[in-house]
Write a structure and sequence with these properties.
This protein has helices at about 1-5, 10-20, 25-35, 40-80, 95-110, 125-130, 175-185, 225-240, 280-285, 305-310, 325-330, and strands spanning about 115, 120-125, 150, 170, 190-200, 210-220, 245-255, 255-265, 270-280, 295-305. With about 325 residues, the protein is α+β, with helices and mostly antiparallel strands. Helix 2 (about 10-20) packs antiparallel against helix 4 (about 40-80) and helix 5 crosses helix 10. The chain is rod-shaped and about 135 Å long. Bound molecules: 3,4-dihydroxyphenylalanine.
Length: about 325
């Protein structure tokens, strides 16, 4: 009994128990002799043996319970959860700097009451060129710049595509076709910005990319003047860049605006062009069925990457697309 009560672990307890009940133990020896015991002693001896058995088992159970508790306490201690440890934070992603700049630019126009519209990235020649008064001979239409989409082939799944017999399709070279779609679907007055991705057959370098982004703008209303346009652009620049920037308009040419201008911002030691703009050409208004005597408008197209480079002092357009998190993380 003493051995049982002193057992420090389950092994020692088992050993103590076999000492008592094992084949060579005193109790076993006595039980074996029970058959030969005189009849008057037998019941007393049997009862005493049973009692001894019970006491040993009870002691073993008690000891086992104590050891169980101790083991559990030890386990709890060993596997203790430190609830005061700081958690492991999930790393959240964030918007790409180009998306962020687009949103911030649109926000400035939204604050002036503009709405946001969008159009398809695959366009027809009509929307991308013709409707915008861009004639067939215009250099922008040549295969040098435009990525045409061949819809006559198969789509790679083996199924024949429906050939577009009527018109050539292309990856839009600018967001200006959204102007046309907007004017077709919505009656003036129009005050809209149209952000999106555009594509040109360019060789990549520090300032050129085959795909980039523009924020287009279109206003169509009665009595819209060049002064309204200049004031709007000036207000945008002030809101977006802050007061420290110098801007200027210079004369330029676009087939869909007359007169046309370019917007430049003074950056480091030179003027950097960030947008084209102008008064909507009457031919464009006529193309969508608007009477130029009733409606006038102005339009603009910002190069988003240019704006972002200017705003954040980035000197290589390729860093926007390399997906190097060390670069991207700077613009959370
Ligand atoms: N679409 C022109 C381009 O990609 C930019 C542009 C110029 C847009 C004048 C306009 C505009 O809306 O009025 O080069």
């Amino acid at each position: 009994m003493e051995e049982i009560e002193r057992a420090g672990d389950f092994e020692a307890l088992d050993a103590a128990r076999s000492t008592v009940f094992g084949r060579k133990s005193r109790l076993t020896e006595i039980r074996r002799g029970l058959a030969e015991a005189p009849p008057d002693v037998k019941p007393v001896l049997g009862k005493a043996l049973g009692e001894a058995n019970r006491r040993v088992e009870t002691a073993c159970d008690a000891r086992r319970a104590v050891l169980d508790l101790a083991r559990e306490a030890e386990m709890l201690e060993r596997e203790r959860l430190d609830l005061t440890l700081p958690g492991r934070r999930m790393r959240h992603g964030h918007r790409h700097v180009i998306t962020r700049v687009i949103r911030e630019m649109c926000d400035v126009f939204l604050s002036m009451g503009y709405r946001v519209a969008s159009g398809p990235e695959v366009e027809t020649e009509w929307y991308n060129f013709e409707a915008l008064n861009i004639p067939a001979w215009h250099p922008a239409r040549s295969e040098m710049d435009t990525l045409y989409v061949d819809t006559s082939g198969t789509d790679g799944t083996g199924a024949d595509r429906v050939p577009d017999a009527t018109e050539a399709t292309l990856l839009r070279t600018h967001t200006s076709p959204v102007q046309v779609r907007l004017m077709e679907s919505t009656q003036p007055p129009l005050y809209h910005v149209m952000p999106g991705r555009v594509f040109r057959n360019e060789t990549q370098d520090a300032t050129h990319s085959a795909q980039f982004h523009q924020v287009e703008g279109l206003v169509v209303d009665s009595d819209v003047t060049f002064g309204d346009m200049a004031g709007t652009i000036e207000h945008f620049c002030h809101e977006y860049f802050g007061p420290g920037y110098d801007i200027r308009l210079f004369p330029d040419f676009f087939p869909f605006t007359e007169p046309s201008a370019g917007l430049e911002v003074w950056w480091e030691d030179k003027w950097l062009e960030i947008a084209g703009l102008g008064m909507v050409d009457p031919n464009v208004l006529r193309n969508v069925g608007f009477d130029p005597e009733t409606w006038q408008g102005f339009a603009f197209g910002f190069g988003v990457e240019r704006v972002a480079m200017l705003r954040y002092g980035i000197d290589d357009i390729r860093t926007f697309y390399n997906n190097d998190v060390r670069f991207l993380e700077q613009f959370v």
